[in-house]
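Task: encode each sequence below as C-alpha cells.

Item 1
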Amino acid sequence: MNERFAHLPYRPCAGIMLRNPSGLVFVGQRIDSAADAWQMPQGGIDPGEEAEAAALRELGEETGVAASLVRVLARSREDHLYDLPPHLLGRMWNGRYRGQRQTWFLMEFLGEDRDIDIATRHQEFRDWRWAGLSELESLIVPFKRELYRNVVNEFSPYF
C-alpha cells in the first residue's frame, strides 16, 4: 500500500455470486475496460442502505435480474477487503478510497437466461456468461484474485 493513501477508508460494497440451477455462476465483462477481465456483480452501498438491499439493487442495475427472481442462500461471515493497485490509487472513486470492503451474498437464480439483460440504464457489462467455481479466480483482475478465492471457499459448500 502506498503510504500516501494508507489513511483512506475502504469503500463499502456488496457483491453477488449468482448461481444458476446447473451450479454455474454469472460473470460479466466490464464495458469500461479493454482487459479480458470478468467479474461477478458488485457495487457500492449507499449511506444508510443495508448490504442485502444494496446487493439486490446492484444485481438489478447490472444484470436486469429482478429481486423476485433470486433467493438469498448465504451472506459472507465477514467482509472481504481488497486494496487498489498503485496505478489506480487516487484515480478510482475520485481518490476517496484505498479499495473496497465487500459483503458478499450467494443468490440462487430462479429465472431463465432470457431474464438477464445487461443493456441496463447504466450498463456496466459488455458481455456475460455462466462460469464454473474453479474458473472464477482466473477470470478476475489480478488484484482481486485473493478476494475471489476467499469468496469461492466460503460459498463452495452450497454447490
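Item 2
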Amino acid sequence: MEVAIKGLLFDFDGVISSLMGRMGWPFLWALRKAKPDITRDAVEKVLFKTGEMVLAERKVSPFFAFETMLKIANIEGFNLFRKLQFMIQGGVMYYKSKMNIIPQPQANETLEQLSRKYKLGLVTTAERNVIERAFLKIPSLKKFDIIITREDCKNVKPDPEGIIKGLEGLGLHASQCLYIGDLPSDVLAGKRAKVKVVGILGEFESFSKNHVSLYKPNYVLHWLKDLPDLLRKIDGENF
C-alpha cells in the first residue's frame, strides 16, 4: 500500500505566480523597443525558441535574466547597437518587474484549501523579498510551514538541497511528500530528493509539455488549481 501524502512542497515562479508576469513581459517590452518594426509572428517565434532553450536546461543559473536576454538577442540577430539597447532596456525592465506578482489561476484559493489538510512548504530560487511581497497578493503563503528561498541554499535546483531542507522543516519523510514544479530542474531536484514530482505545464503548455515530460515527473497537470483533484485520486489509491 502506498504511503499517504501528508505534505506538499512548491516551486514559486510558474507554479504559484506567473513566470511571464515577472520575467517574460520585460523581455517582450525591450524586444519591441529595440526593434519597433518587429512583427507579432517574429516576437512569438523568438519567445518560443527562448522558452524551449530555457526549459531544456537542467539547471537554473543565478544569472538567468541576463543569460535569457542574451539568448533572445542572439536568436533575433541584432546588430551590436540593438543588442546593447535590448540588453540595457531589458535589464532595467526586469529589475522593475521583479516584484510584479501575478497569481496563477485560483492559486490563492487552491493553497487555502490544501492548507486545511496538508503541511505546505515553498522551495524556490526566488529571493526572500520577492516572497514577502507575494504575501500581499497571495495571502495563503503566510500559512506555509516552511519557506526556503535562494538565500537559504548553497546550491540551486536541480540540486536537491532546498527540497531536503523543506522536508526537514515539515518533519516528513520523502515518501510522504510531493514536490510541485514547472521546469526540468524541478523534476530532477525532486527525483534526487526521492520525492514524487508533479510537473505543472502552466502558461507555456505548447512546449513545456515535451520538455518537462522528458524528465518523467510522476504526474503532469496544467495548472496548480488541478492539484486537489489529483490528491483526491492519490488518497483514493491509498485505501
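Check on item 2: The two ends are 8 Å apart (CA to CA). The CA atoms of residues 32 and 39 lie 9 Å apart.
End of task.
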